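Question: does this match?
>
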Amino acid sequence: MEISMQVTDKDSKILIKDMKNVTSLADSSTMPTPTPENQQGKAKLPKVKRPFNRKMFFKWVTRIIVILLVLGGLYYAYRIFSFTNNIGLKIKPEDLISGIKKDPELKKDSTGKFTNILLVGIDSRGGKSKLQNTDSMIVASYNYDTGNTVMYSIPRDLYVEIPAEPKGYFQKINAMYASGESKAKGGGFTYLEKAIKNNTGLEIQYHGMIDLQGFKKIIDTLGGVTVNVENSFTDYCYPLDGTQKASYFCSALPGLAQTISFKAGPQTMNGTVALQYARSRHAPGEEGSDFARGRRQQRVLIAIKDKVITSGTLLNPQKVLEILDALENNLVLSPFSTSEIQAGINLALKQKDNPGKIYSFVLDPSIANGKLLMGGTGLRSNIAGFSPQLYTVQSRDGVLPTYTQLIKFVSDVQTDPQLYKDNAIIRVYDTGISYAKAQAKTLELQKKYPYLNILFMGTLFSDKEGVVVYSPESVKYEYTVSTLSKYFKTENIIKPEYIKTGLNGENITILLGKEPVPIITQEEK
């Protein structure tokens, strides 16, 4: 009997595959022994357990980790680009393609010695589209020769000329940003930076502006900051929401104020407490002034700087992302290139290993011993015939506010900040050189250091020899004593025995005796 079968190409392929499988099973040492159970119906074949391939496992794990890192890096880059665009900081794609320079540098002023950064705090409760007057203005000036930083608080009531045509129009500097923005979008910093340069001599290379919410967020994101409170004070008139003016909540709307207190000494503050400390302005006495507030704001900024550097935040991508998320809607920065960002990070890391000194100055009427500025109501009107101005801070020279002397003072501070930080009370006495000569030398000293507190006190003795420069607080005023002793070319810096009292209570005493009589030895004879 002959059986005829037609086999298609598809069937033949399946048949060949099945034959190979059967052959493979027949050759396998794991072929099961026929039993009644597996002889009926379909045969039950055991699963073949493959050996664990350690090499392949680690290969795939590595691939997954790399993929996650790449995705994380892409997200990190995306967040940075998103953040920078939202805050006005522009990074060009070609900067990333070309890479960072080997030795990146920040911009410097025309002297090539300083990088000046303008830090602006703004009382904005409606977002960046409703920016108000600048609440605080601080210029941080870094000296590349010394590694030190000088911080200048600009009084918001400083009465300055508007840097635009027509000339001769003045306003408080805290309104300068709003005036510039009203002329053109982005013109606010142009106006403000020109006003600062024209009246202090400080050229601004970079700027940053943060509102109240951003100020709190950055401190909370850092886990709080430690601030050294210089003086204890209590403010009975701080607004509950931190926004209303004193005249509103202290009298017209009682119940909207709260009492806040701070004790002298180091304290760890969260964002809310730090903001209260930095913005309080109604405490009794000196701590209730705008100028004391400027000093407190500088201390908080220093505390933030210390926390960022010591905590390694700049090298922690997760922490950087947290800060970006916190500040995205509360911060505006000037344009930076990627090289400048890297230069800034390098500078911060350098400060961690070799921290320079930070000097703080508030340009208030007491600065330079009251010789430069004055504050009050109706000091000068904007234009002849107009009503007097409200409280302003103005220069002491000129019919209209000019700040030539303030520019000279800031220049001297830039050169020798420690001398002006000491701000010693210096008194000069004639102890033998003669009244007229001692007075003349005092005038020369005053000309050399016009912004120090130097006075001639007359004749004390008439028979003493040599020049003596000393301080009863030798450690505190060591630098100024050294500077003045070099000026007078003397090594006598110890209080002489013939001075029995504290004289007039000055910090530094200068005794001008007559020239010592040369001692002639027997050999010289």
Summary: The chain has three domains: 54-87, 89-420, 424-512. The longest strand covers residues 134-143.
